[in-house]
Amino acid sequence: MPSRLLVAKHLAEIFKVVAHQDRIRLIEELRGDERDVTSLAEALDLPGPRVSQHLSLLRAHKIVDERRDGRRHMYRLNQPEIAAWIVDGVNFVESRVTGAQIANDEIEQARRAWQKENSLSEGNTE
């Protein structure tokens, strides 16, 4: 199999796994540090079982790692740079949507929040 085809196949798998709004938000929440299911569910205002189900899929595809801390299961991104993809994706979304779908100020708020949080997790203090 030619290398470009092989790489495209693996990228398509990753895109399929993260192609859900809850999983995108989970990746963003995990960008800075490990978290447990309860804190993720509270931060995202989602039911715990739903968060667990998404984390299980992300773990099966090696996007997140899990470790046990007593009775808690702690999750972290296997490769934190995947969170930067989301920030980069905001530019793509912005060029594709119309005002009726999402307001420009909502896009800008998401961009600022995610960029700020990503810089903090990378140790930048800007």
Would you write up a description of this structure?
With 126 residues, the protein is mainly α. It has two domains: 75 residues, Arc Repressor Mutant, subunit A (Orthogonal Bundle); 40 residues, no CATH class. Helix content is 63%, strand content 11%. It has six helices and three strands; from the N terminus they run H-H-E-H-H-E-E-H-H. A hairpin with a 2-residue loop joins strand 2 and strand 3. The N and C termini lie far apart (45 Å).
Q: Total domains, how many?
A: 2
Integer average pLDDT: 85
Strand order of the largest sheet: 1-3-2
Sketch the topology as an H/E string, one letter per element. HHEHHEEHH
Helix content bin: 55-70%
Biggest beta-sheet profile: 3 strands, antiparallel
Task: Name its key features.
126 residues, Arc Repressor Mutant, subunit A, 2 domains, single chain, mainly alpha, 63% helix, 3-stranded antiparallel sheet, globular
Question: Briefly, what is this?
Answer:
This protein is mainly alpha-helical and 126 residues long.
